[in-house]
Structure formats: structure tokens, C-alpha cells
Specification:
Blueprint lengths: L5 E3 L5 E3 L3 E2 L7 H12 L4 E3 L7 H9 L9 E6 L6 H15 L4 E6 L12 H18 L3 E7 L3 H7 L9 E5 L7 H9 L3 E5 L11 H10 L3 H11 L3 E3 L5 H8 L8 H8 L17
Parallel strand pairs: 3-4, 4-5, 5-6, 6-7, 7-8, 8-9, 9-10
Antiparallel strand pairs: 1-2
Helix pairs in contact: 1-2, 2-3, 3-4, 7-8
């Protein structure tokens, strides 16, 4: 397995097994250069979002990387301020314009239950409208695949009542400290790939003693062990860094294997550091 190996999604499209995340990457030169460095290091999967405010810089990085567009898998996401079919259609075009692309490989609903609509139209109607627009984007050739992010089983169950296209992925905050077992099991049962954003727990899990010990045993970094755990679980990790040496290191995952005992030990680390928020209770 390498950075260019792929999973096959439930619609038959292929997606590289590791992605390069850009959440919290500043807009401008930092985002552009980090994308260039990632593509130079062998990544072929770049993940961004409208709310990250760096789509234009990510697009410049892709354009200036020297890597052919068709060899790069690009993901972006529609944010909470888009609640209708028409707003989402406009958001698709806006993201494409910022990225400088004719199409994206994957477009996600970023958050399942935005606070402003909870007491008005409700998440079920909002998500149905946004999803209908994403399906129209697929029909128009602007999007190859569509999926969700931060969705819990009840959000997907509601979406599937009206969806003509099933979600191909559910991008979650998943790492050794927050394993979201119930959601991951639901995804697997519905042939939805689990993508793991913040697979290093925003850095917090890297100091957990048990993870450090396993890393030392393998002659690897704690980050590499956390990412390998994600891969061996069948997830798609999206490590983020703006440091060239760490970008390279985070992609060097294919010359070692975690043992059954290693995996079992890491599985006990649930709750060791920060946990994700409940998407039905957040204030955004």
C-alpha cells in the first residue's frame, strides 16, 4: 500500500487511502505551499471546506504543484449558512470558482444540524434540500461523489428518506482518543467509508504514554502510529500539517504494521484526551 492506493466507494469511484487535511491552515501562502509540499511528498488527496476560508489558496497550490488535475482527488464542503436548494447550488459554483476547478471529486455536507435552523426548518428538511442540490451538482458534472461530515446515525437515516444518491463517506473526528464506535459501525453497515479528520487528535494524543511506547517499539513517531491505526481499522485519515518534514513523515506509513496487540492497546485509549462535540448541541 502507498499514498496513491485507493479505497473503492459505494458508487464505484476510487479515493486515495490517505488525504491531506487543511482545517486550521491559514489562507494565503501557508495553505498554498503546504498543498504543494503535500503533492510533492506523494499525497494525491486534498481536503478543504468553504468554512476553512482557504479554498482559493488550496486551488493555487493544486494549480502550481505540477501534478495533473486528474491525478488529484479534491474534497470540499458546504457550510451551515447554506440551508436551501438554491443557496447550495450557488455554494457549489462559489467553491469551484475559488478552487479554480471545473469539478470536485467529493462534496460534503459539513455539519448535520446547524444551530440557527434547529427551531425553524429543522435539520431533516435542511439536509434534504442541501443534498438535493449536491445531487444536482453530480448530474451537472460538477461533482463526482457526495457525502456527509459529522453526521450521527439518526441524521443519515433522515437523509436517506429522500436521497436518490447514498452518501459515499462520513467524515468524522476519529482518533485513538475518540473512536466514535457507534457511528463507525453504522457507516460500515451502510457501506459508507469513515474518513478520520484530526486523526492525531489535534496533536493531543501524541503524548499519550501507551501510544509513545508503541511508537518507540516500531521506531516510528506517535503520529505515524496513530495514522497507521486508522488505516488498519479501514478508515481514511486526513492528517494536517504545514511543516514540510511532518507532511513527509505523516505519509510514511507503509513500511510497518501494528500487531493485533498494538491495535488492542490503542483501542483502550478512548477518552484519553479531548472528545468531539455533539452536533445537535453546538452553538453554530
Amino acid at each position: 500500500m502507498t499514498l496513491t492506493d485507493t479505497y473503492t466507494l459505494n458508487n464505484g469511484e476510487k479515493i486515495p487511502v490517505v488525504g491531506f487535511g487543511t482545517w486550521q491552515t491559514p489562507d494565503g501562502d501557508v495553505a498554498e505551499k503546504s498543498v504543494i509540499e503535500a503533492l510533492k511528498a506523494g499525497y494525491r488527496h486534498i481536503d478543504t471546506a468553504a468554512v476553512y476560508k482557504n479554498e482559493a489558496s488550496v486551488g493555487r497550490g493544486i494549480a502550481n504543484s505540477g501534478v495533473a488535475r486528474e491525478d488529484i482527488y479534491v474534497t470540499t464542503k458546504v457550510w451551515n449558512d447554506k440551508t436551501t436548494y438554491e443557496e447550495t447550488l450557488a455554494a457549489i459554483d462559489e467553491s469551484l470558482a475559488k478552487l479554480g476547478l471545473d469539478y470536485v471529486d467529493l462534496f460534503l455536507i459539513h455539519w448535520p444540524n446547524p444551530a440557527p435552523i434547529r427551531e425553524t426548518i429543522g435539520y431533516e428538511k435542511r439536509n434534504a434540500e442541501v443534498w438535493r442540490a449536491l445531487e444536482a451538482g453530480v448530474a451537472a458534472g460538477k461533482i463526482k461523489s457526495i457525502g456527509v461530515s459529522n453526521f450521527r446515525p439518526h441524521h443519515i437515516d433522515a437523509l436517506l428518506k429522500t436521497a436518490k444518491i447514498a452518501p459515499v463517506v462520513n467524515q468524522l473526528y476519529v482518533n485513538p482518543s475518540d473512536q466514535q464506535e457507534e457511528v463507525v459501525a453504522y457507516n460500515k453497515a451502510h457501506n459508507i467509508l469513515t474518513q478520520a479528520y484530526s486523526p492525531l487528535g489535534t496533536g493531543e494524543v501524541l503524548t499519550v504514554p501507551a501510544l509513545v511506547e508503541i511508537a518507540e517499539k516500531h521506531g516510528k513517531s506517535p503520529a505515524q502510529v496513530a495514522l497507521k491505526w486508522s488505516l488498519q481499522k479501514g478508515y481514511l485519515p486526513l492528517p494536517k500539517s504545514v511543516t514540510p518534514t511532518r507532511i513527509i513523515e505523516n505519509g510514511e506509513l507503509f513500511d510497518f504494521e501494528l500487531s493485533v496487540e498494538d491495535i488492542a492497546t490503542i483501542d483502550t485509549l478512548h477518552g484519553a484526551t479531548r472528545m468531539t462535540s455533539d452536533p445537535d448541541q453546538t452553538n453554530f
